[in-house]
Amino acid sequence: MNPVLKLLMMLVIALEISFTTSVRLNLVIFIVSLIYLIFFASFKRIIYLLFVTLIPAIGIYFAQKINGNYQYGILLVTRLYAFVTLGGTYTCRTSIEDLAGSLEQNFRVPSKFAYGVMGAFNLIETIKQEIIDIKLAAKMRNVHLSYVSPTLYFKSILAAMNWSTLLAQGMNSHLFVEGSSRTHFKKITIKTTDYLILIVVLIAIQIILIF
Amino acid sequence: MNNLSINNLTYQYTGTSKPTFKRVSLDFESNQMSLIYSPSGSGKSTLLKTIAGFYPQYNDGTINGVINFNNQNISEFSEWQLRQTISMMFQDPMQQFCMTTVEDEFIFTLENLQIQPDKMNQIIEDALSFTHTNDLRKRDFKALSGGEKQKVALSIIVAINAPVILLDEPFANVDIKSRLELISLLSQLKESGKIVIGIDHDLMGYENQIDQLIGFDEDDTTFKPLDDAAVFKLFNQFNDSTNRPLTSEVVGEPIINCSDLSIANYDMNLINHLDLDLIRAKTTLITGPNGCGKSSLFKTFIKQHDFDGEINFNRKSIRKIRLNKYLQNVGMIFQESTKQFIKITVEDELELSKKNAFNNWFNDKQITEFTHRLGLDELSDRVIYSLSDGQKKRLQILSMVMMGHSLLLLDEPFNGINIEYIAVVVDLLNQAKQNGQTQLLISHQTHGLENLIDYHLAFDNHKLSYQEAF
Question: Up-side HSE of residue B70: CA atoms within 13 Å toward CB?
Answer without folding.
Answer: 10
